[in-house]
Here is the input.
Amino acid sequence: MTTLLTGASGFVGSAVLRALLADGHAVKVLLRETSDRRNLEGLQVETAIGDLRDRPSLDRALKGCEALFNVAADYRIWVRKPETLYESNVTGVRQILEAAGEAGVSRIVHTSSVAALGLPKGGGAGDEETPAVLDDMIGHYKRSKFLAEEEVRRLVAKGLPVVTVNPSAPVGPRDIKPTPTGHMIVEAAAGRMPAYVDTGLNVVHVDDVAEGHLLAFKKGKIGRRYVLGGENLTLRDILQKIAAITGRPAPKFRIPHNAVLPIAALAETWTRFSGGDQPFISIDSVRMAKKKMFYSNARAREELGYAPRSAEYAFRDAVAWFARHGYCPPPKTP
Here is the structure.
């Protein structure tokens, strides 16, 4: 089976690529001319040059393909020009799905995010059916992922064979940028996080997310979405686990969210005026941190046979990879 994969040079996409190749797919990857190709080194794939925002390039890439895994996304919590997020994450999604339908692709897996899901008003873990509206979405990234899912539902209603997966916070090897979660692990592993805020994440190994993509392709129901998550952990628990892995002290001080907001505002202002790419902390990230982003993967377990490993396993793989590639010092413990 010939499968087109978008986002293959990225963190989650490169894990999905390896899972597809191991499963026997002949994979064609959609890359931009400027894509960083380090995550593709040594892998036997066909390359198609294109961009989700360039419809003709998508039509060319999809020729001869029977399946599509649309993993590409602009994953930035802060962005200088917000419209660029919507161009990739909403317009781009619509274009590639429409192109796949016209090309006669028989099965599509679209990668969304738990960022597009709701959270229970009284706390607890959200899932695929937790109610949410656009006004619940904090920041442009979450809004763009929510709107992309609306495009998916519209096209499924017209007969497009799409299964949606919603990864939580993947961690593990090949996070070359790194992602916001990966950046947090790097800072913690280097001992540069002296304090924390009261928040939480659902953490999952990136390779388990990739396996979840394959399971959704084989067993998922058209029009349905599946949370590909792992363990719900407070940020304090996460930092303590990383400290135990690296042999460095865990942060002991909790900072109130409202005390961090002025720092985030200054960081954003400095980034805008200095021409930097990303502030070390953003206002939207602090606003999001006011809620514990906990989710349930029960549907994926029951319907797909999804079985993620422990978060500690994921942290160990991530720290080892970051240290090996010079992002942080090696662990003090064996």
The longest helix spans residues 83-103. The chain has a mean pLDDT of 94. DSSP finds eleven helices and 13 strands in the chain.
